Amino acid sequence: MSTITIPPDLDGVLDVAWEAAKKVPGFLVEEEARFLGMAAACSPAEGAIVEIGSFKGKSTVMMAKVAEHYGLGKIVAIDPHNFNSPELHELRTAPESSTYDEFVRNIQAAGVGEFVELHRAFSKDMSAAWTRPIRFLWIDGDHTYKGAKTDFDGFFRHVRPGGVVAFHDALHVFSGPIRVFVEDVLRSNQFGAAGFVNSIAWSQFRPKDGELFRKQRTALADVAERLIPLVKDDHELHGLKKILYKVNRSRVPHAAIKPAEWAALLNRAKRD
Question: What CATH architecture does domain 10-270 belong to?
Answer without folding.
Answer: 3-Layer(aba) Sandwich (3.40)
